[in-house]
Amino acid sequence: MEKKFMGVSWSVGVLGLVMILFVISKCVDAISCQDALTTLMPCQPYLTTGALTPTPPCCQAVSTISAAATTTLARRELCRCFEKAAPALGVIPDKAKLLPQKCGVSVPVPIDPKLNCDT
Predict the structure, then answer these.
(1) Does residue 97 contact residue 44 with C-beta atoms inside 8 Å?
(2) Whole-prediction pTM
(3) Distance from CA of residue 59 to its chain's centroid?
């Protein structure tokens, strides 16, 4: 009886560990809208003014966001986030479109206000 109980306890413990690792991996894969916007704050002068080039901290932020968007769902959510936030923050769409290129960062989804986030 004691061996059977230990086997069940061990199985429950392993299952719990697997569930914890699954939840942690999901948290690491995604970045929240607020975190993404905060991360991109160094880009605000380039995106909203006449600044001709983004700063190194801005380009590092673009790289960080690109690396965090590892799944289709994460990219879709970031697209929707930027789609809603950009006009409110005064982002110049043409400058946003050029940002990855100016930073030398490859992004999986083009930054374009005309882009349908659901595709």
Answers:
(1) no
(2) 0.72
(3) 15
